[in-house]
């Protein structure tokens, strides 16, 4: 058939012909969403992972996620999948797109393109995490950064790259790199922290993504981040003394 129909006639006529002739011309990947969910608990940064109930990668750790429904908005899809698998309810203020990944053969079932999200669980959020749908269990995994290398720990057990399904280790690495690269000008990870905390606690949060901050004293840390942190005038008891508390502001870019 001549390609003239693409530039002649009405748009209504074009769409009718396109659906009849061209709509099956190109192979169609499945679209999925994945979520890298962070929280702050007992002085540690943690990620929410599931263990897969079904094949492929049955029993492996994985990010919460799944297939996007037909004509479903991507933001709605990731919030739906997270709720179905973990019973955690997120809203749009807590999520942001991280990357789109379409590496060939990343999913042994079929050709899939995944949109990964950064998700921030607020410190005061008391939602109970419970496995559902494709998740056999849920796990809060501690994130550590040793000499620039990511470490994931489930309690006393360290998780290796081979313990994760699909390419989810690489997605987590990308999430950590994204957060590390924005700490000095757009530290969205602060959303998981209490609104008021000691400077040492904020510094150790940053050190979870860039270990250089673990070596920095509080005076130099505040000097570098004076555009983000502000003294509250109050103090909080720590293990050794009462320390001044600070609040933070994340300026929109």
UniProtKB/TrEMBL annotation:
Taxonomic source organism: Streptococcus loxodontisalivarius
Protein's name in the database: ADP-ribose pyrophosphatase YjhB (NUDIX family)
UniProt keyword terms in alphabetical order: Hydrolase
PROSITE patterns: NUDIX, NUDIX_BOX
Taxonomy of the source species: Bacteria, Bacillati, Bacillota, Bacilli, Lactobacillales
Residue ranges of every copy of the Nudix hydrolase domain listed in the record: 28-165
Top-rank lineage group of the source organism: Bacteria
Cytoplasm in keyword set: no
Gene3D superfamilies hit by this protein: Nucleoside Triphosphate Pyrophosphohydrolase (3.90.79.10), Winged helix-like DNA-binding domain superfamily/Winged helix DNA-binding domain (1.10.10.10)
């Amino acid at each position: 058939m001549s390609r003239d129909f693409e530039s002649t006639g009405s748009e209504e006529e074009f769409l009718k012909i396109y659906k009849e002739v061209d709509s099956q011309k190109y192979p169609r990947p499945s679209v999925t969403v994945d979520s890298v969910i962070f929280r702050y608990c007992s002085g540690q940064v943690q990620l929410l992972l599931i263990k897969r109930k079904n094949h492929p990668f049955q029993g492996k750790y994985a990010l919460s996620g799944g297939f996007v429904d037909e004509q479903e908005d991507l933001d709605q899809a990731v919030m739906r999948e997270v709720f179905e698998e973990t019973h955690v309810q997120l809203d749009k203020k807590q999520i942001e797109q991280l990357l789109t990944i379409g590496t060939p053969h990343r999913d042994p079932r079929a050709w899939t393109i995944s949109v990964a999200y950064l998700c921030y669980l607020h410190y005061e959020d008391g939602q109970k995490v419970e496995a559902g749908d494709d998740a056999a269990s849920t796990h809060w995994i501690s994130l550590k950064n040793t000499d620039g290398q990511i470490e994931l720990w489930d309690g006393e057990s360290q998780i290796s790259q081979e313990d994760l399904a699909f390419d989810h280790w690489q997605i987590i690495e990308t999430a950590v790199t994204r957060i590390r690269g924005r700490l000095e000008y757009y530290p969205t990870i602060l959303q998981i922290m209490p609104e008021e905390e000691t400077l040492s606690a904020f510094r150790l949060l940053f050190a979870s993504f860039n270990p250089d901050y673990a070596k920095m004293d509080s005076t130099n840390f505040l000097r570098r981040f004076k555009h983000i942190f502000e003294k509250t005038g109050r103090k909080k008891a720590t293990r050794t003394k009462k320390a001044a508390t600070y609040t933070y502001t994340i300026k929109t870019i």
